């Protein structure tokens, strides 16, 4: 009897062994495991982005909005473009997160915890326009290297943080300070720990502006991971790459910061105008500072058909880097005549400004509504592409939408 | 005594014999079941089409790691043409193929881009694959003439209601 029981149990066990193992492992695999090659994370869910956002690159993640998605006065996270030079940090230990201020031109190196930054310094909130230096790159001919942004690498969110100036004054800065440079927690694409994906900055004058923040909130909430959680420098009106995400360290330099993507051709344009396609030596390239005047029609979406005799409401935003937009116009005849738009004052310095117009069309047909902003120094957006440059930066050509009157 | 012993022995033998037959039968049944499971582990012959039946499809997909559909390498999006696998193997380790496909350059500028990646981004020496990759890229992803401003294309017309 004992032996029989033993044989029976052993057989059952091996039976379970044979089917059991396969089935248990198999059903787990089907439910929870997708072979590595097939892994395709949904970036819209991953970053809480709208399905109409356009993915340009998935390693590193780069994603842009379309013009009509940017209609809000303050851009919500779901429509904010994602621009990464490296891999998003994999682990953020917010409790032990610190910011160190160092460099040749600090009186002494100093480290703050996030809590110290938040409790020691006054909080400020500003709406700040951030535009990728390469926004509009896709239009350059000959084509420029990099992510082929169209119009959607720009937004204006509300940022809350402490002034970089207040922190630097607490640290003590020497008279020979020239530039600040940031260092962050993102990971180089090659996963080489000795390399930084990006480490840019700006001259001290920009660091000391009221609106240059060490931000910990975007639109009233913790900064989303893709946009720099838990701490980000925000330098509105300058290429968005100056606004370093996942901020861990700021170096106050006695030279122009020479971090990754400060040198060579990165975020630089020829110091003197060049012919399309011309080779430019590194030493003849100058760092981009303030972004140029630009505007975007966010309503209606291009392709609207309206009945004859009906007025069309057109609206959007305009911005001008460090400056203010002084005038906003539209044309329905390819620039032959321009009519004024209603233009609002910015919510604060470096925030984009809202414009609107009631457009009348003289007869049925195909039209394009072109928008043109002029800055407080009298510079307007060109209708054609501005000066060609090797990396395809600063395309501020007029935006236009197609309209049919039927 | 003798007869009793004989009867007892006979009974014990009969008992043992029954156990032996039963054991052999059980072993034979288990053997048959085992053989069946080796041949058809997910009991497909019994119409078992529950979630367990999905298991066997998984390894099949791994065989299609480099599947081509309609002339496109599904995993990367690259056009199937000579040099594609060299490009996949050397150019998609650090960044996505999307970054390659977006960019349209001539031979000289691709070469300069490769040098830049070797100098600053830890790209290895491509050896004889360098020319194969550059030829693949300039042949399949040539620059497009755009002029100073393109006309609006791909307009999706819709009726505006408000």
Automatic annotation (TrEMBL), chain A:
Give every Oxidoreductase molybdopterin-binding domain span: 87-257
Instruction: List the cofactors.
Output: Mo-molybdopterin
Q: Does the keyword Oxidoreductase apply?
A: yes
Q: Does the keyword Iron-sulfur apply?
A: no
Q: Which InterPro entries match?
A: Ig_E-set (IPR014756), MoCF_OxRdtse_dimer (IPR005066), Mopterin_OxRdtase_euk (IPR008335), OxRdtase_Mopterin-bd_dom (IPR000572), OxRdtase_Mopterin-bd_sf (IPR036374)
One short Pfam name that applies is Mo-co_dimer
* Domain Moybdenum cofactor oxidoreductase dimerisation, chain residue ranges per copy: 287-405
Going by the UniProt record, its keywords in alphabetical order are:
Metal-binding, Molybdenum, Oxidoreductase
* Name this polypeptide is given: Sulfite dehydrogenase (Cytochrome) subunit SorA apoprotein
From TrEMBL, chain B:
Membrane-spanning ranges? 20-39
The protein's matches in SUPFAM superfamilies, at most eight in alphabetical order, are given as: Cytochrome c
Q: Which UniProt keywords apply?
A: Membrane, Transmembrane, Transmembrane helix
Name of the protein in its database record: Sulfite dehydrogenase (Cytochrome) subunit SorB
What is the scientific name of the source organism? Zobellia uliginosa
């Amino acid at each position: 009897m004992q032996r029989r029981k033993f044989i029976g149990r052993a057989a059952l066990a091996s039976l379970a062994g044979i089917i059991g193992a396969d089935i248990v492992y198999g059903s787990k695999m089907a439910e929870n495991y997708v072979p590595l090659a097939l892994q395709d994370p949904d970036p819209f869910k991953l970053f809480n982005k709208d399905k109409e956002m356009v993915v340009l690159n998935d390693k590193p993640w780069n994603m842009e909005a379309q013009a009509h998605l940017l209609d809000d006065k303050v851009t919500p996270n779901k429509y904010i473009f994602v621009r990464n030079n490296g891999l998003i940090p994999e682990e953020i230990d917010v409790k032990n997160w610190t910011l160190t201020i160092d460099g040749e031109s600090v009186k002494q190196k100093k480290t703050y915890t996030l809590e110290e930054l938040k409790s020691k310094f006054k909080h400020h909130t500003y709406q700040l326009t951030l535009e990728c230096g390469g926004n509009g790159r896709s239009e350059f001919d000959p084509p420029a290297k990099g992510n082929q942004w169209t119009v959607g690498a720009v937004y204006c969110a509300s940022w809350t943080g402490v002034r970089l100036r207040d922190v630097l004054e607490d640290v003590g800065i020497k008279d020979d300070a020239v530039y600040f440079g940031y260092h962050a927690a993102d990971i180089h694409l090659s996963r080489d720990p000795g390399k930084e994906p990006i480490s840019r900055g700006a001259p001290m004058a920009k660091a000391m502006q009221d609106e240059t923040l060490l931000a910990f909130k975007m639109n009233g909430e913790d900064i989303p991971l893709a946009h720099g959680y838990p701490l980000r420098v925000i330098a509105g009106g300058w290429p968005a790459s100056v606004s370093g995400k996942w901020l861990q360290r700021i170096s106050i330099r006695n030279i122009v910061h020479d971090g990754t993507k400060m040198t060579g051709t990165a975020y630089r344009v020829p110091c003197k105008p060049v012919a399309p396609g011309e080779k430019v030596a590194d030493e003849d390239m100058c760092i981009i500072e303030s972004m140029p005047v630009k505007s975007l029609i966010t309503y209606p979406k291009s392709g609207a058909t309206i009945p004859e005799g009906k007025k069309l409401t057109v609206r959007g935003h305009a911005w001008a880097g460090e400056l203010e937009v002084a005038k906003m116009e539209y044309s329905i005849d390819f620039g032959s005549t321009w009519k004024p738009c209603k233009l609002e004052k910015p919510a604060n310095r470096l925030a984009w400004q809202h414009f609107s117009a009631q457009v009348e069309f003289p007869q049925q047909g195909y039209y394009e509504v072109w928008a043109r902003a002029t800055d407080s120094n009298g510079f307007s957006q060109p209708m054609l592409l501005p000066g060609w440059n090797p990396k395809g930066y600063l395309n501020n050509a007029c935006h236009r939408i197609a309209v049919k009157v039927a | 005594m003798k007869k009793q012993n004989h009867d007892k022995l006979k009974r014990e033998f009969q008992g043992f014999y029954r156990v032996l037959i039963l054991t052999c039968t059980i072993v034979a049944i288990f053997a048959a079941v085992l053989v069946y499971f080796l041949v058809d582990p997910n009991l497909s012959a019994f119409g078992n089409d529950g979630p367990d039946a999905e298991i066997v499809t998984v390894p099949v997909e791994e065989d299609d790691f480099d599947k081509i559909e309609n002339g496109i390498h599904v995993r990367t999006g690259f056009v199937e043409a000579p040099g594609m696998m060299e490009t996949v193997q050397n150019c998609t380790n650090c960044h996505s193929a999307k970054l390659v496909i977006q960019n349209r350059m001539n031979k000289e500028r691709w070469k300069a881009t490769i040098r830049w990646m070797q100098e600053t981004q830890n790209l290895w020496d491509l050896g004889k694959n360098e020319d194969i990759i550059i030829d693949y890229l300039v042949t399949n992803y040539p620059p497009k003439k755009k002029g100073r401003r393109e006309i609006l294309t791909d307009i999706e017309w819709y009726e505006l209601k408000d």
